[in-house]
Amino acid sequence: APIGGIGGGTIGRGFKGEFCRFQMRPGMYEYHTVAANQFIVTIHNSEGKMIYQKVLSPYNCIPGAAFIWTIENDSDSLKYVGITMTFKNGTGGKEDKGGGCWSEMFSHDVDGQTVSGVQIHQTVNKMPCTYAVAAKHKEGVKVTHMPQFDPSGKGKELWEDLSKDGEFDSPSASSGHKTRTGEQLACAVCVKLSLQGGRTGQAEFALVWDMPNIHFSGKSKKYRRFYTKWFPTDGTGAASLSHYVLSNYEHWEKEIELWQQPVLQDASLPDWYKSALFNELYFVADGGSVWFLADEAENLDIDDPRLEYGHFAYLEGHEYRMYNTYDVHFYASFALALLWPKLQLVLQRDFCDSISEENVTRRSHLYDGKVTHRKVKNSVPHDLGDPDEEPYLLINAYPIHDVSDWRDLNLKFVLQCYRDYHLFKDDDYLRTMWPNSRVVMEKALEWDSDGDGLIENGGSPDQTYDSWVMKGPSAYCGSLWLAALFCISKMADLVGETGVAARYRAILEKAKQAFQKKLWNGQYYNFDCSGTPHSKAIMSDQLCGHWYLRACGITEDVFPAVNVKTALNTIFNFNVMQFRNGTMGAVNGMMPDGRVDDITIQSEEVWTGVVYGLAATMIHEGMIDEAFKTAGGIYHTVYNRIGLGFETPEALYAEKHYRAIGYMRPLSIWAMQHAWEQRKHLVDQ
Which residue numbers delimit the Glycosyl-hydrolase family 116 catalytic region domain (predicted)? Predict the structure, then answer.
């Protein structure tokens, strides 16, 4: 699991426990395995002779970047055991040798509890950043330090010092010299215990980084990370952060156990699902995430939640460098809405504000060369920007299509607004979201060219499946449209706009008839109305709108119940069971003759997050065995076959390949948990 809190940067680890994936620069990943970042064990016998010394690559990590070693002396004689943590400056790249880095020892005491260690002061992309390696003092434990050694050498001075007596000699100075260009710097902290035969002891370490003030590559604005609400903002917080971690990790463990307990003790849930459910949350912290405070220049209203909870953003993926990609967040948002609802609220407020924004910079799109404005007024943006530009100031970093014409973004905004209202019961939130919800629905109505109440796709990949062309009415966008019409009419009622509600309900009734007539074939909803052979494809995501209605607690049948059950059975029998013998989730597109739809790369893919959403729909409809069979294929492929736990890809292929590791959409597994708990509640009633 990667270490680090939400929005404060992360350091990822490999399967052997090595530190190998750094996200110190906001949203930018550097993949370097740093050999100097290690744990070392040194053991001496009762006569003071060293009998064992070794680098320990595998180790256990818990939230808060605390590393707790349990040492068991299963011999019958006294042993002196030293565990040493080493860490170097930088992130493993060329900048590490830029010079100007220095280290110093520190000791921090609060209420009689002492933590000591070494700090490394440096800059990362011209942003001050301090690493701290620390250990907790307690009875029977001796903590010693080596404030500086050369990590580019063999570490002779470190190994020899430890080999003498399993601890470091007192350094001649508490701080090291500043590195020159070409030099690097590392430090070490050792915890030494004396253990009688048959006894156990603990060595408690913390690794923290204090990088309170950040900027993106555009450098137009500076931001303060959210944790500085409680810690210094001037770069002197590493010592207090270390103390906080080592004083609180046991409490965090208990809180995590209490939170996970209802799921872990639910005998009706398969074990693999429990693992996937919690482990997929890695992306909330390790999705290039930033969480920073609002500033006074924003002139936010006094009741705006961003004054208290700031701004939160996470990338579409490690390789898809756009913040809060909205068509994908639509799936992933269940994790935030259920677990960190205030983060979902502030994210939605940022998108709500962006709807009225306009950026008349003209650019040519990669798909068709069409030249349009970067951001069109009265449209939901695709994303809030690229960390390699200037997020929040330059939105819509996505360069492939003109997203102002995408058919799904406006509808997904309305559906999330109503879903959040259903979960939070926040009337102020609903009233705030209502005006722009209506604006984007009126914009979407322009896509109904024949007046039958049902919007049409424009003959391009104008939605989240951005290589899969839809023409005319489509199952995917049509289902989202029907669901959005239902939700906007409910919202209108709630804010007292009864006339508006009646108008949207009238449009919905027309749209339902058109959807049924133009797309239902008796077994499933056709992919689209293009009239091509591929228009008959069975799309795994064809009931996306219905899924959201059920997640909103809506029991009315906007989609005929018999259609829903029949379509789900068709998807299960074809997209799941006739693809890799049901062992790999649901392929996006399947032809009615049992062939995978090969019209485009995306129709041939299995989208991990879409599969979890499909499984959630199945749970809502009582198809429990089918749901876990479908979703189980994702877990066993990602975690057991291809070893991509903690970097789940967006897409899987039938053979050998995958696409877009470290992706946002698989957080939709929390929609399964929402469906499960909602169904249990209905059964209990």
Answer: 310-672
**Are the beta carbons of 593 and 604 closer than 8 angstroms?**
no
Q: Are residues 168 and 206 in the same domain?
A: yes
The label of the residue with tokens 């490690």 reads 318
291 within some domain: no
**DSSP state, residue 359:** E
Domain annotation covers residue 282 = no
Q: 491: domain CATH number?
A: 1.50.10.10
* Whether residue 116 is found in the same domain as residue 207: yes
526/653 same-domain check:
no
Amino acid at 323: Y
**pLDDT value at 60 more than 50:** no
The answer to whether the CB of 85 falls within 8 A of the CB of 36 is no
239 and 345 both lie in a single domain: no
From 571, 601, 636, give the residue that closes a domain: 571
pTM for the model: 0.94
Q: Alpha-carbon torsion 539, 542, 543, 545, what sign? A: positive
**Helix (H), strand (E) at residue 677:** helix 669-684
* pLDDT tens digits, one per residue of 120-173: 999 999 999 999 999 999 999 999 999 999 999 888 889 999 999 999 998 877
Claim to verify: residue 644 and residue 533 sit in the same structural domain: no
Full residue range of the structural domain in which residue 470 is found = 405-571
Q: List, as one string, the DSSP characters of 419-488.
A: HHHHHH--HHHHHHHHHHHHHHHHHHHTT-SSSSS---EEEE--SSSTTS-EEESBHHHHHHHHHHHHHH
Q: What is the pLDDT of residues 622-670, one digit of tens each?
A: 999 999 999 999 999 999 999 999 999 999 999 989 999 999 999 999 9
- Residue 96 vs residues 38, 92, 126, 401: alpha-carbon distances, Å: 17, 7, 12, 38
pLDDT tens digits along 402-456: 999 999 999 999 999 999 999 999 999 999 999 999 999 999 999 999 999 999 9
Cα–Cα distances in Å, from 678 out to 23, 259, 554? 37, 18, 11
Of 571, 604, 619, the position where a domain reaches its end is: 571
Asked whether residue 151 is domain-assigned, the answer is yes
C-alpha span between 319 and 301 (Å, rounded): 36
Alpha-carbon gap, residue 180 to 382, rounded angstroms: 44
